[in-house]
Design a protein that fits this description.
This protein is mostly beta strands. It contains four helices and 32 strands. The strands form ten sheets. A five-stranded mixed β-sheet has the order 10-11-21-20-14, with no helix packed on it. A five-stranded antiparallel β-sheet has the order 18-31-30-27-28, with no helix packed on it. Strands 5-4-7-8 form a four-stranded antiparallel β-sheet, with no helix packed on it. A hairpin with a 5-residue loop joins strand 15 (216-220) and strand 16. It is elongated, with a radius of gyration of 41 Å.
């Protein structure tokens, strides 16, 4: 027992002698809470020593620790502000703090930082003893842009066939990735989550419903009329749709939705609307997918998709909102859309008085009815046809917001053109008549050509007797 005590005392004495010879140095960095882009951050390096300070170096570590970028250096050799201890044999603790300010931090400032401190060896007073500490700076960035669009639009409308409808909410600029969810008319939607294909599988980021199995299966009934049979859930059980017979039209039970017959009233336009012949008996199933796409600046783009079987009778004028939560936001960001069927496009024809040979443009300027600022959503598909005949270029129909008729002939006068606007919520037709007036300049040219031909004919008749007379005299 006595030997152990003596050995312990010797060991402690030896350690104390070593400590007096080499001195000691401890370095710690105060931990940092997550910061938001644009804030100013102060990195604090605390170190304690009884030696003489040589240098302080701050590094920013990148590429997984393979690269250290020097961001701050303090060299005590050329600084006279620090007092040197006169008696190095007397143990005295000196506490230092080195601070580095990073103003207006960016996402790229996210990562580890190191503080390296060097002191002179107490024995040689030339050799440098080093110690370091590290801290990780977490930089958050709230989303800077969110938007909601309808997937696969513009798309045609079918009154006999149920179809899936998908809203896509995209949140950009967030770090870490924000959480995204949907509401309908202010109420949180209960969804069935499913895993969408990864970005790599899709080859570029269009992950979502297209890569998954179809949610709707279709079949033909005895009348060969397409109808919706089911909305398949994760368990594969049939959904909650049924199809009515064409004889029992849903529109027939609602007289206000009866299509208006086309008339020949000019210059008024005629609007007719179509609604599907099927209804949904219960609340729809909402399917939800969430895809994270890393961006080059360190942020994450989130694409959230909400898919359900559309019911125009119930979903028309429904307000859907996408909300985004993020730790850098005090309250959620929100963007919203109102589903709305087309309500009859307003058509503008230029020129107002078309003449033979003019180029006529019929353009969609907006819609006949609807609250201000509430445009039709999703984007409608516009289709142009000529009632009772083909278009000027020989085609049966043309898509787009504008119909161009090049060098209209006189025989198009009085022809009726139909613009059909349709989106997944409904379809509407607007008719307008083309009135073609005579072109005075073309008539003048025609008269000049006729006068020239008449003068040549008269000249020929005058020359003919002269030729006959000369011929008679010669013979």
């Amino acid at each position: 027992m006595g030997k152990m005590t003596a050995l312990s005392l010797c060991f402690l004495l030896f350690a104390d002698l070593l400590d007096l010879a080499f001195g000691y140095l401890t370095v710690t960095i105060e931990p940092l809470p997550p910061v938001v882009v644009g804030e100013t951050v102060t990195l604090k390096c605390n170190f304690k020593t009884d030696g003489r300070l040589r240098e302080i170096v701050w590094y920013r570590v990148t590429d997984g620790g393979t690269i250290k970028q020097k961001i701050f250096t303090y060299d005590a050799m050329f600084n006279t502000n620090y007092s040197h201890m006169e008696d190095y044999r007397r143990r005295e603790d000196l506490v230092y703090q080195s601070t580095v300010r990073l103003p207006e931090v960016r996402i790229s400032d996210n990562g580890p930082y190191e503080c390296h401190v060097g002191i002179y060896d107490r024995a040689t007073r030339e050799k440098v003893v080093l110690a370091s500490g590290n801290v990780f700076l977490t930089v958050m960035s709230p989303p800077n842009n969110i938007s909601v669009v309808a997937e696969n639009t513009p798309a045609p409308f079918s009154r006999y066939q149920a179809q899936n409808f998908t809203l896509v909410c995209t949140a950009k600029g967030g770090k870490p990735a924000p959480s995204v969810y949907f509401k309908r008319d202010g109420e949180l939607i209960e969804v069935i989550s499913y895993i969408s294909p990864t970005v790599g599988d899709e080859g570029g980021g269009s992950a979502g419903v297209r890569g998954a199995r179809p949610l709707i299966s279709r079949d033909l009934d005895d009348t060969k009329l397409q109808k919706s049979l089911s909305l398949l859930g994760p368990d594969g059980r049939p959904g909650r749709l049924y199809t009515e017979s064409p004889k029992r039209s849903y529109t027939a039970r609602q007289p206000r939705y009866e299509p208006s017959p086309a008339t020949e009233t000019i210059p008024e336009t005629v609007v007719s609307r179509e609604f599907p012949r099927w209804v949904q008996s219960t609340d729809p199933l909402y399917f939800f997918s969430n895809t994270h796409i890393p961006q080059s600046d360190g942020s994450v783009m989130v694409q959230a998709k909400l898919t359900w079987t559309l019911n125009p009778q119930l979903d028309n004028d429904a307000l859907f909102s996408c909300e985004v939560k993020h730790p850098a936001l005090s309250m959620p960001m929100q963007t919203e859309v109102t589903l709305a069927a087309p309500k009859g496009p307003k058509l503008l024809m230029t020129p107002a008085r078309a003449k033979v040979g003019d180029t006529v443009r019929i353009t969609v300027q907006g819609f006949q009815v609807g609250s201000p600022g509430n445009e039709v959503f999703p984007e409608p598909l516009f289709t142009w046809t000529r009632v009772g005949g083909r278009l000027l270029d020989g085609s049966t129909e043309r898509e787009g917001k504008e119909l161009i008729l090049e060098r209209v002939p006189a025989d198009l006068n009085g022809s009726m053109y139909r613009c059909t606007a349709q989106n997944p919520l409904g379809s509407t037709d607007t008719h307008t008549r083309l009135i073609v007036f005579e072109n005075p300049s073309m008539m003048k040219n025609t008269q000049n050509q006729n006068s020239g031909a008449l003068g040549l004919h008269t000249l020929r008749l005058t020359l003919l007797p002269l030729v006959l007379t000369v011929t008679a005299e010669l013979t």
